Amino acid sequence: MNVKVLKLTAKRDKVKFSLLLPELNREVEVKLSQFRSLLEHFARGVRIAYLKTLAKAVESSGEEGEVDLKVVNSGEMAKNFPMKYGIFELEGFTLQLGKDAIASSIRYTIEKDIRDNLKKEMKAISIKSVPIIARVHVTKNHPYEKAFEEVFRIFEVSEPDEKDRVKVRIGVKLFKQVEVEGRKVTPLLLVETVMKLRKRDKDYPSINSYYQILRRIDKGRREEEKEREEGKEEKRKDVYRVAYAGLSYKEGSGLSLLISYKVPVVATEKGRENILGIDLGQACPVYWCVITPELEEKKLTNGKHPRGRLEYPVNLKGAIRKLWRARRNLLSSLRRINEQIKVLAENRKDMKENLLKQKRRKVRNLEGMRRKEKKLMKKMDEFLANEVIRVALREGCGRIRMEKLEDIDKTELYFPKWNYGQLQSLIEQRASLYGIEVEKVNPYKTSQRCPSCGYIGQKKEEVRPRRDLFRCPKCGKEFSADFVGAFNVGIGGWEAFKPKRR
Predict the structure, then answer these.
(1) Which residues are CB-neighbours of 12 under 8 A, at least 6 positions away?
(2) Who has the most CB within 10 Å: 19, 79, 115, 501?
């Protein structure tokens, strides 16, 4: 199973966070800054617990001075955690964390980083923030649906209304029971939001749609519960299972609800015999070509199989190019300011101070542009990855073949400085959800082999009169350069057509 984390963020997703007391039927509004202070308070306790545990590990080290890594674990750190940092005052209520919540928070977030760091560099690490996590604890005698309901006391995802809006309401148990007005009450972190569905989410179940993920989690839990009531004890392998829920804060993104879920690996359906060859194009971002079993055997095209190009949306492509232009102008402006600062005399301190202020302001703008560029690139790659999966499902493909990135010359691609590794990993993630295998092949000579007669050009100039055109000197046929690459990748790359040694 693939483990992923869904993140519902207050500002980005317009999520409302509050405290719910279900036994008293009371909902208490809490400011986001109060939740932030709560998490910072908890992180201080984790830092102290880590330092205490590290000191103990160093004391128990042998003569060689190696840290005893068995001592550095979430259970030991939970024992060393000062409990005053697990007690919080929030809107007149005293909330307290249990030992299991403390240990789970450490285990799922920083334990692996700490242990890896000690193995390699043998030095203390800086713990900036730690989310508060409630684990869905499943055992043989405690089935998943009961463990799920212990953590998620409320999990409601409505059907889309006439305006394609979906209401989501999730209540998570993070804290221990408290006594309010003489009654024992279980405080819940209540998260509410309204999602606006796109047409894509209805026509095609987009994997990065929060609505689709939440529906799969809820549907899988209900189906398992129904089967258990019918007497079926066998554990299902095709449902989305939740590992934990948590409350997190991060500078820049704000307060978030984390839901870690496991995605089942779906078996390839029968009848999907075709292969989809994917080439990172020169005239377009991605070119695809369908390879049937007959074509894979012959390794030559018949000119009738489906192929096509995938483009980024015009608005996103225009936005990224506009951002790149603005960044180039900003960088040139920074260079001019640096040159002016160098040539200024020491007695012109007032002018120098003014230039330094301008420089600091432009550096901040540049950092903001980089963050915006990263988000925009991911959004564009998610769009292309979804389109690739849509094509694979439509054409009955059970396998996708792509190039190994380390073996290609990125200077010839559509966007030379693009993060194509991110695009390929997104395609792999989405393919696994539909049982589609992904194979990476050696792209050597895939742009120089004629798909009609099999002739392999010794040099690119021999078969590529233009950047986007392939012309075979043997049979005289012309093809799009991107189609040639996609076809040869689809049949298996260099290993499939390289000359056999005699």
Answers:
(1) 253, 254
(2) 19
Comparing C-alpha atoms, which of 307, 284, 272 is closest to residue 486? 307
CATH classification number, 274-311+383-497, choose in 3.90.930.1, 3.40.50.12780, 3.30.420.140, 3.60.40.10: 3.30.420.140
Q: Which two tokens stand for residue 229?
A: 């009531």
DSSP 182: T
Residue carrying the six token digits 């603005």: 326
Whether pLDDT at 297 is above 90 = no
What separation in angstroms does the CA of 2 have from each of 13, 140, 215, 264, 308?
A: 24, 22, 18, 7, 30
Encode burial over 78-102: b for 16+ CB neighbours within 10 A, e otherwise: bebbeeebbbbebeebebebeeebb
**pLDDT band (50, 70, 90) for residue 280:** confident
Dist CA 316 CA 298 (whole Å) = 40
- What would the DSSP string read from start to end of 60-97? T--TT----TTTSSHHHHHHTS-GGGGEEEETTEEEE-
Return the closest-CA partner of residue 281 out of 384, 412, 390, 178.
412
Assign 3-state DSSP to the chain and report helix, strand, coil percentages, each to 5: 40, 25, 35
pTM as predicted: 0.65
Residue 15 has pLDDT above 80, yes or no: yes
Would the pLDDT of 457 be above 90? no
pLDDT in tens, 48-102: 998 888 888 777 766 565 667 777 888 889 999 999 999 998 888 889 998 899 9
What does the block give as tokens for 83?
């409990």
Amino acid at 18: S
Asked whether the CA dihedral 90, 91, 94, 97 is positive or negative, the reply is negative
* 158 token code pair: 């409505």
- Kindly state the average pLDDT of the residues 213-242: 74
Yes or no: say if 386 and 208 are a contact pair by the CB < 8 Å rule. Answer: yes
Give the H/E segment covering residue 53: helix 32-59
Give domain limits for the chain. Answer: 2-263, 274-311+383-497, 315-378
How far is Cα 224 from Cα 236, in angstroms, rounded to an integer?
Answer: 7
